[in-house]
Amino acid sequence: MNNLYQIPAGFKSSGIGPIPGDWEVIELGNIFKLSSGKTKPKDLSEYPSNENKYPIYGGNGILGYANVFNSEGERIIIGRVGEYCGITRFINEPCWITDNALVVKDFLKDIDVQFLVYKLQQDNISKLRSKGGQPLVSQNPIYIHKIAIPTRKNEQTAIAALLRIWDNAISKTTALITQKEFRKKWLMQQLLSGKKRISGFNGEWKLIHISEVSKEVSIKNKTDKDLPVLSCTKYDGLVPSLEYFGRKIFADDLTTYKVVPRNHFAYATNHIEEGSIGYQENFDEALISPMYTVFKTDSSINDYFFYKLLKSYRCIYEYQAWMEGSIDRRGGLRWEAFSRIKVHLPSLEEQTAIAQVLKVTDKEIGQLKTKLDKLKEQKKGLMQVLLTGKKRLII
């Protein structure tokens, strides 16, 4: 017999595939009963405060905060409508659950609640959503969905406890990233405006037009070079398009695309007001849509400093103001207008010193994000083996 159809030692066949011999298959309708939440409160705030301290959960997560709650204790929430319908969350706090979410309140079987949440997350309840129209997952498809679980509750609890260790590490790392990013924003606001000076520098900053330190570069890919195609994102700058989007969103004919040499800038001419500007330092040459503007700075500029400056809130405000004042906004912010924007610049030496401080901060955040990705991958791997019984814990 083909190995694909053999039952592994210690496993038994079931309606949903091989499962450990001492596990059981059960429909979710025999584990819990679902109900919908209530209409969200009228008075709510975007952020928590002493008055509005209770989170409001909808189908896509926290919507805001209110001064009332309609749920407390251990709850399982399943998004009912919207893009994230079927997403399962565990909460254990006073909160308000809206009618865009389904909530598990009544359990018909003695089961470890957090284990069940992990199991539902692994099974991806989102696949039970209705076809067509607004994304929606209803109660009946959930009730008849079958899962395999350990018959012993202490094994469920042990699995949940181990996965919770990774969740705690993920939460702490995420919180640290948020903290570092807030500090980075503060540093950028202070250092890029001259409000905070690095020790040893006290010279006046010059107010100059962008055109005084840079020039437009327009090189078409007329010979159809086989070069990586880039896209510009609001937060990440220039990124390889295929890698970032996971699919081809650029044209088949690349002869009209612009070449972006290494150490050049590019911005989305029609969307610069969103901060869509990037710096190309990963390839000798790459391609960008003809709808972008490419430019290069001169030797008086530290490019890292200048890139951070051009991504700052003050500059984004300038882009928006120039576009609003444009006679034809459909033309975007072309080089003629963009290059007339004024910026304050310190000496090259101070630019370099500021860049070094920001690079250290970026490196710390990058290392934390790498750690976070590894933790998530480790948790995913643990879930794949522990929640299927491929690996068993010694209890």
Q: What report would you give on this structure?
A:
With 395 residues, the protein is of the alpha+beta class. The chain has three domains: 3-151, DNA methylase specificity domains (Adenine-n6-DNA-methyltransferase TaqI, Chain A, domain 2), CATH 3.90.220.20; 153-199 and 347-395, Orthogonal Bundle (Helix Hairpins), CATH 1.10.287.1120; 206-345, DNA methylase specificity domains (Adenine-n6-DNA-methyltransferase TaqI, Chain A, domain 2), CATH 3.90.220. The protein has eight helices and 21 strands. It has helices at 113-123, 139-143, 153-191, 241-245, 303-310, 313-324, 335-338, 348-386; strands spanning 11-12, 19-20, 23-27, 32-36, 54-58, 61-66, 74-79, 88-92, 96-97, 101-107, 146-150, 206-209, 214-216, 230-233, 237-240, 258-261, 264-268, 277-280, 285-288, 292-297, 342-345. The strands form eight sheets. Strands 4-10-7-8 form a four-stranded antiparallel beta sheet, covered by helices on one side. Strands 13-20-17-18 form a four-stranded antiparallel beta sheet, with helices on one face. Strand 17 and strand 18 form a beta hairpin. Helix 3 (153-191) runs antiparallel to helix 8 and helix 5 crosses helix 8 (348-386). The longest helix is centred in the middle third of the chain and has 39 residues, at 153-191. It is elongated and about 75 Å long. The mean pLDDT is 92.
